[in-house]
UniProtKB/TrEMBL annotation:
Belongs to the FAD-binding oxidoreductase/transferase type 4 family. Pfam families: FAD-oxidase_C (PF02913), FAD_binding_4 (PF01565). It comes from Caenispirillum salinarum AK4. Residues 44-225 form the FAD-binding PCMH-type domain. This is D-2-hydroxyglutarate dehydrogenase.
Amino acid sequence: MSDLLEQAVTAELLDRITEVVGAKGILTAEDDMAPFMAEERGLFVGKALAVVKPATAQEVAEVVKLCADEGVGIVPQGGNTGLVGGNVPFEHGREIVLNTSRLNRIRDIDPVNFTLTVDAGVVLETIQQAADEANCLFPLALGAQGSCQIGGNIASNAGGVNVLKYGNTRELVLGLEVVLPDGTIWNNMKSLGKDNTGYALKHLFIGGEGTLGIITGAVLKLFPKPVEQQTALCALDDVHDVTRVLSQARALSGDAVTAFELIGRFGMDLADRHLDGVSDPFEAPHPWYVLVEFSSSRPDANLRGAFETFLESAFEDGIIADAVIAESLDQGKMFWRLREGLPEAQKHEGASIKHDVSVPVSRVPEFLDRATKAVTEAMPGIRPCPFGHVGDGNIHYNLTQPEGMDPKEYLGHWDAMNRIVHDIVVDMVGSISAEHGVGRLKVDEIVHYKQAEEIEMMRRIKKALDPKGIMNPGKVVRV
């Protein structure tokens, strides 16, 4: 096709899309599109024919049909908070970005059935608030919850701080509404706790990162609202004690542990230096810290008693060196600000090579020992900053550049550091992507590490559902 003919076809396509979504539902000016072209860390910056913002599932379906007819790629995008490049277009500029921010209705809430039905573009924090107002809990919680959208959370199978108790997003979704690559709307908006009628098709789209269809609605699982929470920051002298602390916390609380977050000394230093309103609450430094939270929906649970029993037992056994219990809401918020602000604090120390990995919980200390030894031998002066959801085995193993090193030079070692860390993870029967997904960043990495049979099955599924290859092409799996 000649350039002039291609331009004419593109112009006609955009005119027809505009007829579907209206003038306020499409952006084509470069400056207007710019905020939708880059992922949060700036690793990928793309171009697009347009940013399209449908307001209903039917509009999404019509846009998809038009793009399918012309073979134009579609990049589904929610709040654009993803960290693996799955939510932005490629640099060639021949795709459209389909942003779901106008799909923002809370359709229904049923506190008896403990379900909440929403559009895909509803912001996670809005869902949390709606559940709270109905005296319920939607437990998905993560740092970007003020801007990320539930459709993106589902498409990436987001994790967060409460996975230990409530599971990943996959466990929180009962039903879905999805626009398939041919423009068909699959309505599976069921609020059933049990449905054993064949293949669990919804799970193709949960964690599919928009490569098999565009999620436009979901039925979410709610839980009784906690009436009591207890939070403490515990200091450890040996990271090998962390799993013993977790085991005692679960056993002595009746499994009421909702969060168990690991922070290293370097992370504490960064938070103390760079985060407003955060300070080290201990008189003396320690090598490791865990943020522990118990919660209960029972008003007579005596959670404080169980919490104090756990801490006393851990002291007596010598597996924690010190602890500070949050005695106020503000102090509890400060502890969480310390943990959730670590990625922000790291930015002040230069470039960072990041890993989102998981290993069996019992092997977390072994992973930290092996990975830290390997990366420091490979690059003396590198500053590991491990933190994360050790309660479910997910560690964000971030590597801050050596002091004084040029950031661009350091980032040039990204692939080498990935190979060191990921080789260790896979040797420990772990995963090189625990909660952030694959996107564009790890599309080749999973080919390197996954069984060939797994990659082939993924390719077959992709070809079967998206034979024209228009749905988020080049992400997750190449066909």
